């Protein structure tokens, strides 16, 4: 029996068990496609208490690439946070899907990696925040485009130089080979 066969035989029960665990926790697994209409008004839960909703999703903010940048969480005067709306970046939440097989019955819940106090420290969703965030993201987009263009120019230049050097080496080797052949023929 080869070592590969032994490894496959040993891993098969582990992989099967992992597959069963993953299917058992399918509700928490990424679903691949989400409905923003259904995500709006989804209950939001803080890290410290997954049984008590601390607000709901008021809005979904997208970036230039149409990816989710943040959610706006409406606290509705819960937990002494006031009736405020906070911007929570995509790195601070996960979305759980319930009844995911039926679009008519699909429900989401949003789980923060923040507690209620940390949510209160997030930026408030105001006109000032909106304008500043929009300008910052546009500037970052421009810098990314400029950086990508610069990287492309550097790569293109380096590749061109490398090809020129390789061509010169091949030409030199060819000349030396031709000279050696001429010398051998004489």
TrEMBL record:
Keyword DNA repair: no
Keyword vocabulary terms for this entry: Signal
Region entry Disordered, spans: 145-168
Cited InterPro entries: PRC_barrel-like_sf (IPR011033)
Signal peptide: 1-28
Name used for this protein in its record: PRC-barrel domain-containing protein
């Amino acid at each position: 029996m080869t070592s590969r066969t032994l490894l496959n035989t040993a891993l098969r029960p582990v992989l099967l068990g992992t597959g069963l665990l993953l299917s058992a926790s399918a509700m928490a697994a990424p679903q691949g496609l989400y409905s923003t209409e259904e995500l709006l008004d989804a209950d939001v839960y803080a890290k410290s208490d997954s049984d008590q909703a601390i607000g709901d999703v008021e809005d979904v903010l997208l970036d230039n690439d149409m990816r989710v940048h943040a959610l706006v969480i409406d606290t509705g005067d819960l937990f002494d946070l006031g009736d405020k709306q906070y911007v929570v970046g995509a790195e601070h939440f996960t979305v759980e899907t319930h009844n995911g097989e039926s679009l008519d019955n699909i429900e989401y819940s949003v789980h923060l990696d923040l507690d209620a106090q940390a949510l209160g420290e997030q930026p408030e969703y105001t006109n000032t925040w909106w304008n500043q965030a929009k300008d910052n993201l546009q500037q970052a987009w421009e810098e990314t485009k400029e950086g990508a263009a610069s990287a492309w120019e550097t790569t293109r230049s380096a590749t061109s130089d490398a090809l020129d050097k390789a061509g010169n080496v091949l030409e030199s080797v060819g000349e030396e080979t031709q000279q050696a052949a001429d010398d051998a023929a004489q």
